[in-house]
């Protein structure tokens, strides 16, 4: 129990405590949602006001970590007044860790310095925050450092080091295989032997709310010459992201069992995709301009420690695994329920629990060749899709490559995104106290190509 009065439907309760980066909302602004928009600045400073989350999206037992700042806050600690600093979401408020602790690690405007301290520091800080918010003896000291989320602006929570995107949903991979390789096995021969992935562009990982400017590039229709212009097949990919805290030395693989020693927390990802650009360019080296124009992430990072009740066994494997991918003693399937909205209408509810490859196996594969980890590395799960049509995590699947347009309540239809469309992805997971914790949201609004 906490001495705070928390909304009954909050997903940002004691069991969650997510981290983020915040600063004061502009004068006269009411702030923006915990997954909000209004980006400003570069990828390490893009910001989004953080107001309340949708009802039911921030259940008690979840405490996301982010960076935030608030106007008129009296006790700024080691950070300059108004500077971006680390905050922890609790109910509809943000706990200012820089002001409360006086620790400069929380005044850097990024979670990286804190994440680099490693699991012992993460656990000690989480225990300390829990004690502050549950023992009434701390109330007088803590209360001045609680700021309404409606009065803060959220920023990109991490300085992204490297970015990797995987392809780990069997349902998604089989759907695409059936579309593009009819009459052949839907999965490529390697798919069940290793987690397929590619390296993305870390500089275009941006905060939720960053406008999605329709990308331009080369594409080619069948039996026609290549053309250059705006993408006609702009798509989403509903994904879950994993944030690395503890680095590893070059030349030293990270085994599956050490996943929780390196990964700090989890966020939501929309890896926007230009399917027509991607289709023309991807042979033989894989995705490039069709993927690198924007990847959006949520402002709150849910600590891995908050997800103990969400751990489940992954699907049964029907191919033997090589030893470095064996996860018999480190099962890291996660029961996360995603929801995708297009212009306010729910179009899909993808289940993360069905992902064939777990984040622990992805991390092991990513480093098995000796590649090092850096604090701030981000890797995404790949599109999360389930076995039913209403659980597919991309428009190319939902419209079956444009053959079966989605029907929206206003009478319009969609095969791919149109200018003016807005996509919001939310997610929840079971918490140890029986409630559901929230991951906030990741949102993007499509703008026309400027040329």
Automatic annotation (TrEMBL):
Entry binding sites for substrate: 167, 181, 278, 282, 383
Binding positions for Ca(2+) per the UniProt entry = 165, 237, 239, 271
> Which cofactors are reported in the record for this sequence?
Mg(2+); Ca(2+)
Pathway(s): Amino-acid degradation; L-phenylalanine degradation; acetoacetate and fumarate from L-phenylalanine: step 6/6
> Fumarylacetoacetase N-terminal domain location, by residue?
83-157
Q: Which Gene3D superfamilies match?
A: Fumarylacetoacetase, N-terminal domain, Fumarylacetoacetase-like, C-terminal domain
Q: Which major enzyme category is it? A: hydrolase
Alphabetic keyword roster: Calcium, Hydrolase, Magnesium, Metal-binding, Phenylalanine catabolism, Tyrosine catabolism
Active site (UniProt): 172 (proton acceptor)
EC nos: 3.7.1.2
Region ranges (Disordered):
27-82, 207-228, 428-451
A GO molecular-function descriptor? fumarylacetoacetase activity
* Calcium listed as a keyword: yes
Chain positions recorded as Mg(2+) binding sites = 271, 291, 295
Q: Where is the Fumarylacetoacetase-like C-terminal domain?
A: 164-428
Superkingdom, according to UniProt?
Answer: Bacteria
A GO BP term here is:
L-phenylalanine catabolic process
Q: Which residue ranges run through the membrane?
A: none
Name of the protein in question:
fumarylacetoacetase
């Amino acid at each position: 129990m906490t001495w705070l009065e928390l909304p009954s439907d909050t997903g940002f309760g004691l069991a969650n405590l997510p981290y983020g980066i915040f600063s004061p909302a502009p004068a006269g602004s009411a702030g923006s949602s915990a997954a909000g928009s209004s980006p400003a600045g570069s990828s390490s400073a893009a910001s989004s006001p953080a107001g309340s989350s949708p009802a039911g999206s921030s259940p008690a037992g979840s405490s996301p970590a982010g960076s935030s700042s608030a106007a008129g806050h009296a006790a700024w600690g080691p950070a300059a007044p108004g500077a971006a600093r680390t905050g922890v979401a609790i109910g509809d408020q943000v706990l200012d860790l820089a002001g409360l602790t006086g620790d400069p690690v929380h005044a850097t405007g990024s979670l990286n310095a804190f994440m680099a301290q490693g699991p012992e520091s993460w656990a000690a800080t989480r225990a300390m925050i829990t004690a502050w918010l549950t023992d009434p003896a701390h109330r007088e000291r803590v209360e001045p450092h609680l700021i309404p989320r409606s009065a803060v602006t959220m920023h990109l929570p991490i300085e992204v080091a490297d970015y990797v995107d995987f392809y780990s949903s069997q349902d998604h991979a089989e759907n695409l295989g059936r579309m593009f390789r009819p009459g052949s096995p839907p999965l490529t021969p390697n798919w069940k032997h290793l987690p397929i992935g590619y390296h993305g562009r870390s500089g275009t990982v941006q905060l939720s709310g960053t406008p999605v400017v329709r990308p331009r590039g080369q594409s080619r229709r069948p039996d026609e010459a290549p053309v250059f212009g705006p993408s006609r097949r702009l798509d989403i990919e509903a994904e879950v992201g994993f944030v690395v805290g503890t680095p590893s030395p070059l030349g030293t693989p990270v085994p599956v069992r050490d996943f929780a020693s390196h990964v700090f927390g989890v966020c939501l990802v929309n890896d926007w995709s230009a399917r027509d650009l991607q289709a023309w360019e991807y042979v033989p080296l894989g995705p490039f301009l069709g993927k690198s124009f924007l990847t959006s992430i949520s402002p709150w990072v849910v600590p891995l420690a908050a997800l103990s009740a969400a751990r489940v066994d992954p699907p049964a494997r029907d191919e033997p695994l090589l030893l470095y991918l064996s996860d018999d003693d480190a099962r890291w399937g996660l029961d996360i329920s995603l929801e995708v909205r297009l212009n306010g209408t729910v179009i899909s509810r993808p289940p993360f629990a069905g992902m064939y490859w777990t984040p622990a196996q992805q991390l092991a594969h990513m480093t098995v060749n000796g590649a090092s980890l850096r604090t701030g590395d981000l890797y995404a799960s790949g599109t999360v899709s389930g076995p039913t049509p209403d659980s597919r995590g991309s428009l190319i699947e939902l419209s079956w490559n444009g053959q079966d347009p989605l029907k929206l309540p206003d009478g319009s239809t969609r095969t791919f995104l149109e200018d003016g469309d807005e996509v919001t992805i939310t997610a929840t997971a079971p918490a140890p106290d029986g409630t559901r914790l929230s991951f906030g949201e990741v949102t993007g609004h499509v703008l026309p190509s400027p040329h």
